[in-house]
Amino acid sequence: MAPLAWRLAQRWCPSSLQVISFPVLQLHLNRTAMRASQKDFENAMNQVKLLKKDPGNEVKLKLYALYKQATEGPCNMPKPGVFDLINKAKWGAWNALGSLPKETARQNYVDLVSSLSSSLESSSQVEPGTDRKSTGYETLMVTSEDGITKIMLNRPTKKNALNVEMYHEIMHALKAASKDDSAITVLTGNGDYYSSGNDLTNFTDIPPGGVEEKAKNGAILLREFVGCFIDFPKPLIAVVNGPAVGISVTLLGLFDAVYASDRATFHTPFSHLGQSPEGCSSYTFPKIMSPAKATEMLVFGKKLTAGEACAQGLVTEVFPDSTFQKEVWTRLKAFAKLPPNAMRISKEIIRNREKEKLHAVNAEECSVLQGRWLSDECMNAVVSFLSRKSKL
Ligand SMILES: CCCCCCCCCC/C=C\CC(=O)SCCNC(=O)CCNC(=O)[C@H](O)C(C)(C)COP(=O)(O)OP(=O)(O)OC[C@H]1O[C@@H](n2cnc3c(N)ncnc32)[C@H](O)[C@@H]1OP(=O)(O)O
Prior knowledge:
Layout: H1 4-12, H2 21-30, H3 39-50, H4 57-72, H5 85-95, H6 102-119, E1 132-133, E2 140-145, E3 148-153, H7 164-179, E4 184-189, H8 210-231, E5 236-240, E6 244-245, H9 247-250, E7 257-261, E8 265-267, H10 281-289, H11 291-298, E9 304-305, H12 306-311, E10 317-319, H13 324-336, H14 340-372, H15 376-388
Parallel strand pairs: 3-4, 4-5, 5-7, 6-8, 7-10
Antiparallel strand pairs: 1-2, 2-3, 8-9
Helix pairs in contact: 1-2, 2-3, 3-6, 4-5, 4-6, 7-8, 8-14, 10-11
This protein binds ligand LQQ7U7AH.
């Protein structure tokens, strides 16, 4: 039977078959037992996990050997058999350190990681430790703390309108959140708006292939973007801090809970913009709130207050704006303490039988929108907004 840490490594760490993965996890498991003076060492271990580029087997063997020496002292394991190539290489690297003192091995490990971090591009998405903050995003603030990954839309001066970069960054953040060790994921907005929806200047940058190519690429992007929400495996919660427009509203039907400030409003002015529903709302909204109520929103562009959206089932609960943040985050922190696997599995059983249908709806909505974006109705509405805002 393999040692417990190794079996855990195989379960928790998909890359555990790589040479360096086992000691990384082993240290992780031992971290509570470590003294504060080993913080640099622990940070270095975390830093290794963030390296985007593979440093190569030679370096990984060095890291492995230094790790073993730093934590266990000189190698006293029997030499692996001649055909056990990987373990033989690991054993050789460790054994070659002879009687190097543990402290020196630890220092050498930290130095080696530090030289790697400056020479190889490292992922800036996650900082070491349990409180992790993103630094690599232009349009988002992503933090991970108390078992919650918070993805905050961060273009407050544009009311958190989603430009093309933000679509890509949200997809990236969701993919990272689906794999990190947080229990739940939250989407919220910075500033007075949750989001004003699609950035209408997305329509202005026409490629050499013309508007047809733009519309085609837009539909591909939108389909992939919405697909990330359909497939997101952990509880996904919207903290709607202010007004929400367009795609930021329609996506709410794919969230597992929606908490709203009483300042929030919910507006999908698709017909006004010559457009049509997306985010699977043509399917989720009639189910959530009845076809007639969904029509009022999605076809006639009726704007709902938070209270109305709650009464229609789109919003889970509304809080007074003055206590919104405090009350919601207290609640979310309590949720995040629940067993993560149980939450994930329960979400799966609630959502999975709809997944195929949702992907089909998404594909159809994107295809219809692609046509809409080429219509005079849509062009005129966008031109009208942009000229009102002196952007043309
Ligand atoms: C064909 C290629 C497509 C590529 C993209 C692919 C994926 C797209 C899929 C999604 C499709 C559609 C879904 C939708 O979301 S439709 C809804 C679109 N949103 C809107 O119509 C809202 C437009 N904005 C407003 O009506 C108002 O700005 C507001 C939100 C009601 C706020 O009004 P305000 O008076 O309080 O503030 P205002 O001065 O207008 O705004 C401050 C600055 O923010 C800019 N801004 C706000 N919203 C947007 C936006 N949606 N797009 C671009 N810019 C926006 C506004 O211009 C101001 O900027 P500035 O200070 O003048 O520089």
